[in-house]
Inverse folding.
């Protein structure tokens, strides 16, 4: 954040406000961790604050302190709309286009509130009065730490805030493994542990709370994997039938796409997941190195994200979607060669 923004923020936050914090649809660990970390902080400096999620999030994130006070726009619609419409300030976290909040989009577009964006995706839209956007950051949670630090309040970071932000950093970096992890990320994580983050317990809650049916679903995805050697690409898919047969719960497929990248020489990994209710195929893209899945998702699958991790969707059926995907690869032969 530049010093002008910090000055403007200090002035804005100097009197008690009604604040709403909104993460993207299908919120992940970073979206929830950054939102709840910021929620605890803003409450502690005297504001009225609510986190409103566009829809539900996975159970493995529901241990985070404050989770019971989160409003779900789908489930608690009337209360959420009322709060949104009367808010002074709207923080949007872990996304940079208003379309990323699904059904909430028209409401956010109509708000009178001042918008503040904190986000680490590429190519931010210009809807916020204050935009703290940095695509080099590991996570929005690391940025919330910087945000609190810039306001001179690092000493106000409690163990609750630290747990939430640590969880967001851990999920978005694959436990400090992805290339977005910097020495600064480790310094922030260390500072969060000093402030009381229980690093072992956080990792345990996120990664070691699997159910047998989830692991069997992973087995199914691994069995379905197709390796396209000539493009250094691996993809897999899960049909609605397969999800149903494994008692699928929200979040169960989180991380499955990464297994393709663990294969030697594979640079591009994809998972296609059928969603019969929304009549779409949800797609996750991951890459190693310079091949930009953000651009691939933006150009071909109505999506976006980061250079090495992006998402998108298709309105065709599974067979048509995969055919289309395979046909596209020829155009990327050079970029995908080792
Ligand atoms: P995932 O594949 O885990 O859903 O998402 C990977 C990354 O891409 C995340 O940072 C997520 O925010 C972003 N992402 C996922 N789906 C979409 C999408 O439909 N549009 C855009 N712009 N970003 C997405
Ligand atoms: Mn993120």
């Amino acid at each position: 954040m530049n010093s002008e923004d910090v000055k403007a923020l200090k002035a804005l936050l100097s009197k008690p406000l009604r604040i709403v914090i909104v993460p993207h649809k299908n919120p992940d660990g970073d979206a929830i961790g950054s939102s709840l970390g910021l929620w605890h902080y803003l409450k502690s400096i005297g504001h009225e604050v609510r986190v409103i999620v566009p829809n539900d999030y996975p159970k493995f994130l529901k241990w985070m302190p404050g989770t019971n006070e989160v409003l779900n726009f789908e489930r608690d619609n009337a209360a959420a709309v009322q709060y949104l419409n009367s808010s002074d300030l709207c923080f949007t976290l872990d996304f940079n286009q208003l379309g990323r909040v699904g059904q909430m989009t028209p409401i956010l577009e109509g708000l009178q509130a001042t918008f503040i964006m904190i986000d680490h995706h590429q190519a931010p839209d210009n809807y916020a009065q204050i935009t703290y956007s940095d695509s080099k950051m590991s996570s929005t949670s690391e940025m919330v730490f910087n945000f609190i630090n810039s306001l001179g309040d690092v000493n106000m970071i409690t163990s609750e805030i630290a747990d939430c932000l640590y969880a967001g950093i851990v999920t978005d970096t694959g436990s400090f493994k992805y290339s977005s992890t910097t020495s600064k990320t480790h310094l922030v994580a260390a500072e969060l542990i000093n402030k009381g983050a229980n690093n072992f317990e956080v990792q345990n809650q996120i990664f070691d709370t699997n159910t047998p049916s989830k692991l069997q679903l992973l087995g199914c995805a691994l069995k379905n994997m197709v390796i396209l050697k000539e493009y250094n690409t691996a993809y897999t898919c899960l049909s609605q039938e397969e999800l149903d047969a494994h008692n699928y719960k929200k979040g169960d497929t989180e991380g499955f796409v990464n297994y393709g990248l663990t294969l030697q020489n594979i640079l591009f990994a994809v998972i296609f997941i059928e969603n019969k209710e929304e009549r779409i195929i949800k797609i996750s893209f991951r890459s190693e190195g310079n091949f930009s899945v953000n651009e691939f998702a933006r150009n071909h699958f109505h999506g976006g994200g980061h250079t090495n991790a992006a998402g998108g969707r298709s309105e065709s059926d599974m067979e048509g979607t995969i055919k289309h995907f395979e046909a596209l690869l020829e155009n990327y032969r050079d970029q995908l060669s080792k």
